[in-house]
């Protein structure tokens, strides 16, 4: 897994606890905001290490614009070499779109996998048909297209998990990563959005890659050859059941497919 950790220490623990108290939040309330368990939050305040993909949640819970800079020194100099050994490292993405594209998918798919698992666990405890909009905390709820919120139940998340695992297997085997369906495009988009935050916090990776000419925000649109996913799913456009980006067609193979 590519999720590196920020080494916990007394100074960082005090900042987290002080800010939580400043906002008059209990540990339970802060943990819910951050999308972690109460025991995990308590470890943060006791000086425990913090996974990089959890920093976004801590910032959200504490209304921080960014994680304290002086505490964000995390990865060793050989971390880029470690990433190239990642189970979801894609030679196809590296060759065609650059190393940061391969990093974005590897790291982002780790984070999205964790988010899916967390929601699956919560939904498994709820009545059949419960969707993520009914959960007290869900990162996917904030990330997936709003029009189809009530469709995101246990069965859909399980499909999302299986689809992402297939994409990670394709990456590992070095085959083409072209997206053939809306659900694959959506997963690429979600992975990249999470990876943007991770890379911004991971200065050592950026330094190891030098001045590589790369736009972390836009490589997936080069992969898709369009920005339809933004135009149709994230632009407050109502889609009827006939539209190719309607939820009922997300599994259909419709892009870059010979007919």
Gyration radius, to the nearest Å?
A: 19 Å
What is the makeup of the main sheet? Answer: 2 strands, antiparallel
Shape: globular
Q: What portion of residues is helical?
A: 40-55%
Instruction: Classify the secondary structure makeup into a structural class.
Output: mainly alpha
Number of helices: 13
Description:
The chain is mainly alpha-helical. It folds into 2 domains: 5-71, lambda repressor-like DNA-binding domains (434 Repressor (Amino-terminal Domain), Orthogonal Bundle), CATH 1.10.260.40; 79-249, no CATH class. The chain has helices at residues 10-22, 27-34, 38-45, 55-62, 79-83, 91-97, 99-124, 139-143, 154-172, 182-201, 203-208, 219-224, 228-233; strands at residues 5-6, 50-51. A two-stranded antiparallel sheet has the order 1-2. The model is unreliable at 71-78 (pLDDT under 50).
Summarize the structure.
The chain has about 260 residues and is mainly alpha-helical. Helices cover about 55% and strands about 0% of the residues.
SSE blueprint and pairings:
Blueprint: E1 5-6, H1 10-22, H2 27-34, H3 38-45, E2 50-51, H4 55-62, H5 79-83, H6 91-97, H7 99-124, H8 139-143, H9 154-172, H10 182-201, H11 203-208, H12 219-224, H13 228-233
Antiparallel strand pairs: 1-2
Helix pairs in contact: 2-3, 2-4, 6-7, 7-9, 7-10
Task: State the main characteristics.
13 helices, 2% strand, 2 domains, 434 Repressor (Amino-terminal Domain), mainly alpha, 259 residues, two-stranded antiparallel sheet
């Amino acid at each position: 897994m590519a999720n590196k950790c920020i080494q916990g220490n007394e100074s960082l623990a005090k900042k987290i606890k002080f800010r939580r108290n400043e906002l008059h939040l209990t540990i339970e309330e802060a943990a819910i905001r951050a999308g972690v368990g109460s025991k995990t939050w308590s470890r943060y305040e006791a000086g425990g290490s913090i996974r990089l993909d959890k920093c976004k949640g801590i910032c959200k819970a504490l209304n921080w614009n960014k994680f304290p800079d002086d505490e964000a020194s995390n990865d060793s100099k050989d971390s880029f070499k470690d990433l190239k050994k990642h189970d979801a490292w894609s030679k196809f993405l590296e060759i065609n779109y650059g190393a940061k594209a391969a990093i974005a998918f590897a790291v982002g798919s780790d984070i999205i996998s964790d988010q899916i698992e967390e929601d699956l666990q919560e939904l498994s405890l709820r009545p059949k048909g419960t969707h993520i909009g009914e959960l007290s905390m869900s990162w996917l709820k904030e990330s997936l297209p709003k029009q189809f919120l009530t469709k995101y139940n246990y069965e859909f998340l399980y499909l999302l998990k299986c689809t992402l695992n297939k994409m990670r297997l394709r990456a590992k085997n070095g085959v083409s990563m072209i997206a053939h369906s809306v659900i694959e495009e959506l997963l690429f988009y979600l992975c990249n959005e999470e990876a943007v935050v991770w890379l911004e916090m991971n200065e050592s990776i950026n330094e190891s890659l030098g001045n590589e000419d790369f736009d972390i925000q836009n490589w997936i649109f080069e992969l898709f050859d369009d920005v339809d996913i933004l135009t149709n799913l994230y632009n407050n456009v109502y889609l009827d059941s006939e539209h190719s980006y309607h939820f009922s067609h997300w599994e259909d193979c419709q892009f870059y497919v010979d007919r």
